[in-house]
Amino acid sequence: MTTATPATPTTVLIVEDDEDIALTLKRMLERQGYAVTWVTTGAEALEAIRAVPHVVLLDLGLPDMDGLDVCRQAREEGYDGGIMILTARSDELDRVVGLDYGADDYLPKPFPIAEMQARVRALARRAARTLGGAPAPTGADEAAAPPPPAASAPSSPSTGHTAPAPGAPAAGALRVNTAARRVWVGEQELTLTTKEFGVLALLDAERGSVVTRETLMATVWDENWFGSTKTLDVTMGRLRAKLEDAGADVEVVTVRGVGFRLEDDTCAPD
Prior knowledge:
single chain; disordered N terminus
């Protein structure tokens, strides 16, 4: 007789130095079935994030460092879960900077509890798909997956590029592997956030065709997304910068009023 393995609970990290707020959030989320950890400083947050919680609720006004720096450093270290900023700061610049540093959502205090719960659920669903992920490819799937930069194999069929010689991907060639959630430009592997990867994978799958803003928001964020679509523009800006810095031979073109298109950059060096 086979015993079913119990589902792993969704984990939430609360980073908040106000005890009243933190305990209220913690009790509320625990009643909904989340496994909740609470820390009060940026240093504790970065340590806890290394355990890879599904969702981080991040206050900006921490006693030892700015929450924006916590967000930025977590993304730089490869954290791929959901980050929601909860803060009393209502300035638009803080909101844009937070999104630019890799936050997925931004909710100013005070906020309606029901709205916060809905946003946490949306982030948790996406993070569960990303962090739960598939096991390392084996067998046929392993043969189809792109190799790490040092390995020798042809580039991904989805890009239409072929390495000039075995083991040497063409300089600037973009390779996207959706199963492994990994991206290379030439031999360099790019570090992308969850949203950046989602946007790039969708654009690459429709290479040369326009993908509408509505499709990107519904697919990469959530069909029930509550926030402004400005987060898409911020994410697109970061993605463009990373592709350009890596010398990718592709370009994300804006089709005004419609969406975006990924196309070969004819100006890229050979």
